[in-house]
Amino acid sequence: MNIILVGPPGAGKGTLAERLIENKGFAHISTGQILREALANKTKVGLEAKEYMDRGELVPDEVVTRIVMEKLKEKEIQKAGFILDGFPRTINQAELLDKGLSSTSVRLDYVIYLEASEKTIIRRLSGRRICRGCGKNFNIYTMQPKKESLCDACGSELYQRDDDKEETVKNRLDVYKESTEPLIDYYRKKGILETFDGDKQIDDIYSDIMRVL
Ligand code: AMP
After folding, report:
1. What is the pLDDT of residues 127-160, one digit of tens each?
2. Residue 21: is it exposed, middle or buried by C-beta count within 10 angstroms (0-12/13-18/19+)?
3. Which mutation among 89, 91, 177, 178 tests ligand 1's pocket best, with the greatest number of atoms within 8 A of CB?
4. C-alpha span between 62 and 132 (Å, rounded)
5. What does the pLDDT average to over 13-29?
6. Residue 193 — pLDDT band, cuts 50, 70, 90?
7. Which terminus of the chain faces fewer neighbouring Cβ atoms within 10 Å, N or C?
8. Residue 123 domain-assigned?
């Protein structure tokens, strides 16, 4: 089964993806995480992406689509089924994805849309902390690590993403509304959209999703 996760930044896509991967064995493709890793490794793509990410803007469609299409060619990923988290983010990316997939046997089964209020989004983003080692998500308000500032899974240090700081968050939300929200209609028309209440606790969202998948 192949799934796309759509929703505003902070709606819980990353945490939900972690759950689905742990429990169902999906392959995770998070464009944000891939770009952050590329930046940490100082690759050309990572350094190019940095200026966009720092401003809370979108990295050019061609760059992210190339990254995703490369991943989707991997046999392991096709076998496991994938969760696309943070991609597509524009109609153009969605069309490029459709085009890329049309020559393969890979099909999209569901687009999971996490709808969340501004209050939830701000709380999740301002409290979010990420593991430097394995990328696992925590939240200082709602999902604290057992030991302060350390990852439960691998023990590495937790950090706050630069783009989770207040000035950038506003821009990311504007970019979401303008560029990404139109995807909801795009996938609704294709008949594969399922909407969930992202304001609920993550355990409840997960149960809601399990009833549908
Ligand atoms: P995320 O971790 O999904 O919140 O992504 C962090 C940042 O990476 C975004 O604010 C963008 O700058 C960039 N990014 C991630 N995915 C995409 C995408 N599909 N298209 C363009 N930019 C992206």
Report:
1. 999 999 999 999 999 899 999 999 999 999 999 9
2. middle
3. 89
4. 27
5. 93
6. very high
7. C
8. no
Atom of ligand 1 nearest to the CA of 56: 10
pLDDT score recorded for residue 166: 82
Q: How many domains is the chain built from?
A: 1
Q: Which two tokens stand for residue 70?
A: 């490369």
Buried b (16+ CB within 10 A) or exposed e, 91-125: eebbebbeebeeeeeeebebbbbbebeeebbebbb
pLDDT tens profile 24-68: 999 999 999 999 999 999 999 999 999 999 989 999 999 999 999
pLDDT of amino acid 167: 80
The maximal CA–CA distance of the chain, rounded, in angstroms, is 48
Task: Provide the CATH number for the domain around residue 193.
Answer: 3.40.50.300
The 3-state DSSP class for residue 1 equals coil
Strand boundaries in the chain, DSSP class E: 3-6, 27-30, 82-85, 110-115, 128-131, 137-139, 158-159, 193-197
Instruction: Write out residues with Cβ below 6 Å of ligand 1.
Output: 9, 31-32, 35, 52-53, 56-59, 64, 86-89, 93, 163, 172
Q: Report if residue 51 sits inside a domain.
A: yes
- Residue owning the nearest CA to atom 10 of ligand 1: 56
Residue 100 domain boundaries: 3-117+181-212
Give the span between the Cα atoms of 41 and 51, in whole angstroms.
Answer: 16
Give the pTM: 0.90
- 127 within a domain of the structure (yes/no): no
